[in-house]
């Protein structure tokens, strides 16, 4: 669980769920509500059959979500991202195609990810467990 003082604007954080990681930049920490306003950068999706693939880098898929909506989420759902996690992806972000079709697809993939995160979070909250 993240402590509020641990986060600051401009910091890159990760929201992890199953085999996927949403990386985003903190815009603001709303301490009185224990919330974090985050601007999504990219979604890293790891394939389900990762154990069958010998080259792990080939099993990762990057979705550029910079042109999607910001998020306001409980701070405890985030963790600080390591430089070694995000630096390899930054060059690939600059070569992304910004066609209308790709932007719509990115929005759909982010929406699906967020839907799955909230389903899990809601279930765990109703069972009085920490996420």
Molecular structure report:
This protein is α+β, with helices and mostly antiparallel strands. It contains two helices and six strands. The chain has helices at residues 83-94, 100-126, and strands spanning 12-17, 20-30, 35-46, 60-64, 71-74, 78-80. Strand 2 (20-30) and strand 3 form a beta hairpin. It is globular. 20% of the residues are buried. Mean pLDDT is 82; it is low at 49-58.
Key terms:
alpha+beta; 30% helix
Which word captures the global form? globular
Question: Would you count the extended β strands for me?
Answer: 6
Span between N and C termini?
8 Å
Report the mean per-residue pLDDT as an integer. Answer: 82
- Tell me the helix content: 25-40%
Give a quick summary of the entry:
The protein has 131 residues and is α+β, with helices and mostly antiparallel strands.
Summarize the helices and strands and which ones pair or pack.
Blueprint lengths: L11 E6 L2 E11 L4 E12 L13 E5 L6 E4 L3 E3 L2 H12 L5 H27 L5
Antiparallel strand pairs: 1-2, 1-6, 2-3, 3-4, 3-5
